[in-house]
């Protein structure tokens, strides 16, 4: 009686050996594929991946070993026998399509259940229904000879899926598909897997493996090195197992001076590996930059070869620089989180991982992986800031309430004393106290504004006209302080929903902040634009000045209550930008601050467009 695990086994290879003359392609290969399972095979060129697929499909006959399929054993399979068992194979280069036939006719000819449909109309309708079921936009009536190579491969895969095989072998067949076709095929494969179909997926593209494969086997020099669940292996370990080898280039001059022990990756995996990856030699000179990294940071091909890694990848953090080019030989992998980096002029926040490469006990290089987390870091800081403001807001509301009560009592008693005693000198003293109490009341009012996040009843307003009116009020003061204001409104009107006074308060707070940052004069640049954020229409307000910028390691601290960068005395109590932050977030907007490259700082405000 078969065990429960055996009942799920669809295909099993036992000690399969295949030779091409004196060259050994496969040596004692053992492999098990279960029903309703996607099993990936990965390895470098010449490892034996395609040979393995052709043995299962009956194209090649092994010299030794045993094949079992659905419980029955075979010494070898013929192409016809494999097809009768429900085994189909799709190659990247060899297509079985009839170019003079239409797409529908090619799919029709491969499908046994419809072999009696002889009318073209029924053939087209049957294929059209199949396409409609899986939301495919390909025209069933177009001749295959008019299709480009990616679409022909797409049709070849659809042809075999239409016939619903029990085991589909994809021999690097997804490599040349268009992005949209690839997503459609992956979706169909996952649906077919749920109905019982198995897939042997031969590929170089690790991202596809992690997207939909269940198990993965690594093949090298004709032997299976490891088979495991995909989730048990991370990409880096899979690369190390499948694609590492020593590369020697005897045609180079000064071979002994060169890094000939370079880690060599297969070109296909290098092109498609979706991480920023660099390889350096033991002296920390760059020997390899993968295509993803080169495109991500817009690096010119060849410009970085043999360059010290610290010249290409720069950081103000001394620990990061030491991680990239350590003075001592690293023995283990190392990681640095949230590291500031500049690569080819692009400033990012990143997680950096380094992995030493050894040939035995000899260090032959290092792998450096750079993960750009700039956007994540920004969102995280915004979240921390919001939490801080929420906590301080609760405190501010309580403080404001407690201060208001004694202030009202003081004000009442002072009024009584003023009208009870009529000395001029005494009245002057009372007026001075009134002034100071009014100033305290103003602070308390600001605290209320900061802590009040209740939804008000906003109205629709045109932002450009609001800004124009505010600029008219401050232009005289700006001229007196030698500040030039440049406003570039959007070409179209931009409408938002908010309280008019609150938006004016935000604009005045930003102007006041810039005026104080430029006591000797300067420029303020204001611009509005209609943008899309995550598919939603929004208004973007940019506010930039040429002042001294924010001298703080974390510029977002400026949104905290009572925080001020002004060292001189004055009426600035550090609540203006906190209140502005509260107003913008109340209307589901965002406000971002950053220091500009030359001087000054820039605020970027985004608000939803009024529907």
TrEMBL record:
Limits of the Histidine kinase domain:
398-611
The record ties this protein, via CDD domains, to: HisKA
Question: GO molecular function, one example?
Answer: ATP hydrolysis activity
Q: Which UniProt keywords apply?
A: ATP-binding, Kinase, Nucleotide-binding, Phosphoprotein, Repeat, Transferase, Transport
Q: What is its EC number?
A: 2.7.13.3
Q: Where in this chain does the entry annotate a coiled-coil region?
A: none
InterPro entries assigned: ABC_carbohydrate_import_ATPase, ABC_transporter-like_ATP-bd, HATPase_C_sf, HATPase_dom, His_kinase_dom, HisK_dim/P_dom, HisK_dim/P_sf, P-loop_NTPase
Q: What is this protein called?
A: histidine kinase
Source organism = Vecturithrix granuli
């Amino acid at each position: 009686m078969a065990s429960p695990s055996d009942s799920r086994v669809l295909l099993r290879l036992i000690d399969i050996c295949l030779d091409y003359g004196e060259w050994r392609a496969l040596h004692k290969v053992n492999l098990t594929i279960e029903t309703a399972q996607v099993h990936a095979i990965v390895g470098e060129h010449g490892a034996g991946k395609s040979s393995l697929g052709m043995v299962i499909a009956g194209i090649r006959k092994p010299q030794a070993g045993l094949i079992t399929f659905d419980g029955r054993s075979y010494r070898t399979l013929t192409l016809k026998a494999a097809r009768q068992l429900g085994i189909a194979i799709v190659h990247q280069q060899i297509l079985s399509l009839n170019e003079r036939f239409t797409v529908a006719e090619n799919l029709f000819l491969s499908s046994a259940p419809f072999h009696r449909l002889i009318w073209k109309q029924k053939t087209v309708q049957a294929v059209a229904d199949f396409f409609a079921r899986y939301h495919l936009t390909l025209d069933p009536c177009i001749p295959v000879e008019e299709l480009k190579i990616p679409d022909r491969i797409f049709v070849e895969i659809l042809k075999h899926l239409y016939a619903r095989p029990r085991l589909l072998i994809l021999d690097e067949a997804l490599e040349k598909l268009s992005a949209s076709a690839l997503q459609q095929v992956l979706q169909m494969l996952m649906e077919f897997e749920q109905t019982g179909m198995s897939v042997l997926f031969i590929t170089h593209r690790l991202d596809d493996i992690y997207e939909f494969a269940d198990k993965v086997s690594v093949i090298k020099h004709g032997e299976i090195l490891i088979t495991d669940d995909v989730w048990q292996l991370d990409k880096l370990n899979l690369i190390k197992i499948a694609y590492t080898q020593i590369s020697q280039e005897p045609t180079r001059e000064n071979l002994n001076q060169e890094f000939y022990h370079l880690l060599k990756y297969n070109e296909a995996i290098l092109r498609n590996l979706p991480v920023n990856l660099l390889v350096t030699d033991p002296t920390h000179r760059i020997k390899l930059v993968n295509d993803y990294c080169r495109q991500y940071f817009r690096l010119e091909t060849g410009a970085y070869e043999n360059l010290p890694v610290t010249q290409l990848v720069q950081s103000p953090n001394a620990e990061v620089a030491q991680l990239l080019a350590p003075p001592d030989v690293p023995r283990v992998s190392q990681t640095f989180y949230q590291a500031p980096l500049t690569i080819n002029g692009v400033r990012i926040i990143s997680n950096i991982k380094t992995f030493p490469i050894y040939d035995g006990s000899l260090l032959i290089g290092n792998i450096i992986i750079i993960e750009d987390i700039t956007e994540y870091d920004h969102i995280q800081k915004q979240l921390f800031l919001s939490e801080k403001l929420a906590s301080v807001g609760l405190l501010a509301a309580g403080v404001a309430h407690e201060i208001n009560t004694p202030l009202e009592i003081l004000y009442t008693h002072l009024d009584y004393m003023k009208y009870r005693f009529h000395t001029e000198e005494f009245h002057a003293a009372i007026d001075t106290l009134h002034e100071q109490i009014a100033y305290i009341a103003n602070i308390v009012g600001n605290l209320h504004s900061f802590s009040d996040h209740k939804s008000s009843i906003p109205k629709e307003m045109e932002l450009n006209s609001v800004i124009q009116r505010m600029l008219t009020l401050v232009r005289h003061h700006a001229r007196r302080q030698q500040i030039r204001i440049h406003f570039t409104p959007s070409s179209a009107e931009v409408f938002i929903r908010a309280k008019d006074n609150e938006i004016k308060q935000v604009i005045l707070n930003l102007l006041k902040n810039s005026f104080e940052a430029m006591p000797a004069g300067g420029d303020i640049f204001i611009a509005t634009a209609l943008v899309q954020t995550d598919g939603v229409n929004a208004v973007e307000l940019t506010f930039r000045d040429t002042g001294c910028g924010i001298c703080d390691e974390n510029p977002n601290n400026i949104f905290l209550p009572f925080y001020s960068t002004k060292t001189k005395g004055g009426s600035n109590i550090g609540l203006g930008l906190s209140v502005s932050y509260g107003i913008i977030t109340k209307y589901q907007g965002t406000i971002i601050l950053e220091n500009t490259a030359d001087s000054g700082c820039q605020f970027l405000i985004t608000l939803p467009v009024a529907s």
